[in-house]
Design brief:
The chain has one domain: Ribosomal Protein S5, domain 2 (2-Layer Sandwich). The chain is built from 5 helices and 12 strands. α2 packs across α3. The longest helix is centred in the C-terminal third of the chain and has 23 residues. The protein is elongated and about 65 Å long. The relative contact order is 0.18.
Length: 260
């Protein structure tokens, strides 16, 4: 680790010990969130989310497909993520990295567990279904990819339109009915620095954190949790973070609902 990074980490820890953050945010405040939809004309749904300086693009593509053998009456959901080299100096081209695989799995787990997509509605006839592909592209990395990507995925799904289907064929140029969304999930990611927990850590705060926790909820039920780095949590700490996650859910969901 470079000297600059060590100095930055120490500065962050000293600020948090005084109850402050570099960007003047409160301990449990998100950075500014900007959501843009319909940014990819050839996708059934798309959204770019800027969470502070972190920028994520998500495209939703719907294609005719065969059902999985164990779910013959449901469509398919496939989530993939790519950490583009232009997003950060440490991202490299090539096979999916452990970080990109983790990102895709965390987003997939929350959406799937909450049954956000009505997969049964994606069945067309025996042996023929729709597959929904959620493709994630990180454009600029400045911390907290999980929350930015979950927001972008939900924004893209919420505004997605289905291709027209007739006589065994799909017309991808004519999109008519909305994709049926049953539920909305939001994730909240916390970092622990010293004895202080913070929401939505930027890249420098991530580097200074001893542990990380991402909580995905639909506002009523916890749908997924993902722990990263080392460290541990007490029961009281977990309960506090769950309460904050549920509080923030309504704020983010309201932003997504505005897109409908």
């Amino acid at each position: 680790m470079e000297v600059f990074d060590l100095v930055k980490m120490q500065h962050i820890k000293e600020l948090l010990a005084k109850g402050a953050r570099e960007d003047k945010r409160g301990t449990f405040d998100f950075r500014n969130i900007v959501i843009k939809t319909d940014v990819i004309s050839h996708a059934e749904g798309s959204a770019q989310v800027d969470l502070g300086a972190t920028k994520v693009l998500v495209g939703v593509k719907v294609q005719l497909d065969e059902p999985m053998p164990d779910t013959p009456d449901q469509g398919n959901l496939i989530v993939g993520a790519e950490l583009l080299p232009l997003a950060h100096a440490e991202f490299e081209p090539g096979p999916p990295s452990p970080e990109s695989i983790e990102l895709a799995r965390v987003v997939d787990r929350g959406i799937r567990a909450a049954e956000c997509i009505d997969l049964e509605s994606l069945k067309i006839e025996d042996g023929k279904v729709w597959s929904v592909f959620i493709d994630i592209y990180v454009l600029n990395y400045d911390g907290n990819l999980f929350d930015a990507t979950t927001i972008a995925a939900m924004a893209a799904l919420t505004t997605a339109k289905m291709p027209k289907y007739a006589e065994g064929n799909a017309d991808y140029k004519e999109r008519t009915e909305p994709l049926k969304i049953k539920n909305t999930v939001v994730s909240t990611t916390f970092g622990k620095i010293g004895e202080t927990f913070i929401l939505d850590p930027n890249i420098h705060e991530e580097n200074a954190a001893s542990t990380r926790l991402t909580i995905t909820t639909d506002g009523k039920v916890l749908r997924a949790m993902q722990k990263g780095l080392g460290g541990s949590f007490t029961k009281a700490e977990l309960e506090r973070l769950v309460d904050v996650s549920l509080e923030k859910y309504n704020v983010i969901k309201a932003k997504i609902d505005e897109l409908k």
